[in-house]
Design a protein that fits this description.
Order of helices and strands: EHEEEEEHEHEEHEHEEH
Length: about 280
């Protein structure tokens, strides 16, 4: 049995504001340890439940945040940027039985600690076939095409609510309770590690490959906080204006959909001007 962990940082233990997650910022080094603790606890729980392999895909920002030396010796980590499937890289090879979304968060335009979708700001909302979409929802549709179920989700309490919409069978762990986008009631790392480990052990029973879900076509719509960003996004083939600050594109598969999404967000991030956005 092989489990893939997609590890993001905004939903990690103790994390509540940008300085906690931006590489090189004042609190980032401290919060890397708590992020690593969450991820390692999940790996340990999966091994407790009978997993043979655990591959951790670093999915936050530079994708170089986790402390490899603090992970269980049995685990392996895929670190670094520029991967075919970005946050869920590794799911496409046909040998993954279940995936965990550790340290996840709610989507742009939603309540939740550090809520966003791919870009920290600039995007004010994303919709997949008309449904308000978080990174979790987008990634869940990608992994479903490979027959891989989402079996564990950790983050704030609202992330767990969000997960019920795209992975209703998954085990969830709230490591903190949302107060505002930049405030939360946080559990201690010792407590969250124990909770995550126990949840991952339970979730291992859900790691059973399924028939691939080919649910296309998919239409993705993005809304930005400035008109010029929508204009910039139309550089990507297939992305067309559907409003003053909105673009939309369609794809037959979520493999194509998530890759186009990455292209759009890359172009848009390059079009953001300092101060004025």
């Amino acid at each position: 049995m092989k489990i893939l962990i997609s590890a993001d940082m905004e939903g990690a233990t103790g994390v509540t504001w940008p300085e906690d997650v931006v590489p090189g910022a004042s609190q980032w080094e401290r919060c890397r340890h708590m992020f690593t603790s969450d991820v390692n606890a999940a790996a340990l729980g999966f091994y407790d439940g009978g997993a043979d392999q655990v591959l951790i895909n670093e999915a936050h920002w530079t994708m170089r945040n986790l402390l490899l030396e603090k992970l269980d010796a049995r685990a392996e980590m895929l670190t670094g940027r520029h991967k075919t499937l970005s946050m869920v890289e590794g799911v496409q090879h046909g040998d993954v039985d279940g995936i965990a979304f550790v340290g996840y968060h709610t989507g742009a335009g939603s309540e939740g600690v550090l809520a966003h979708t791919y870009l920290a700001n600039s995007i004010t909302g994303v919709w997949l076939n008309g449904i308000h979409a978080s990174e979790g929802l987008l990634n869940a549709h990608v992994v479903a095409e490979y027959g891989v179920p989402v079996i564990l989700v950790t983050g704030d309490d609202l992330t767990c609510v969000d997960a019920a919409g795209y992975a209703p069978d998954a085990v969830t762990v709230a490591v903190k309770d949302h107060v505002s986008r930049y405030a939360a009631v946080c559990r201690t790392p010792a407590r969250t590690a124990a909770d995550i480990r126990a949840a991952a052990k339970e979730a291992t029973a859900l790691a059973v490959r399924r028939d691939p879900v080919l649910g296309g076509p998919y239409t993705v719509e993005l809304e930005f906080d400035a008109e010029h960003l929508a204009l910039a996004a139309t550089v990507v083939p297939g992305a067309e204006r559907c409003g003053e600050r909105r673009v939309a594109y369609s794809s037959e598969t979520m493999y194509e959909g998530i890759r186009t999404f990455k292209a759009v967000t890359t172009v848009v991030s390059a079009a953001v001007e300092e101060q004025y956005g």
